[in-house]
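Database export, one record per block. Field names are fixed; values are copied verbatim from the stored entry.
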Amino acid sequence: MLDGPPARPRRRSRRRRAWPRVLAVVLALLLAFALGLSLGKALEDGPEAGVTITSVRTLEPLPQEPATTP
């Protein structure tokens, strides 16, 4: 019989847990979805192009005391 070098024991590959990566991907997708919704809502609620919006406020003057001369 042929006696070659002794066989090396195979190392088990350490398999990382998949759930942290899956959780990070799901959270990133949810964040992107939420940002897309908010951007769409902001663009929808904005004024139409070429339309001027004017706001008018009436200010009441404060009472003033007459000036005195020295």
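Remark 1: The chain has one helix and no strands.
Remark 2: The CA atoms of residues 38 and 44 lie 10 Å apart.
End of record.
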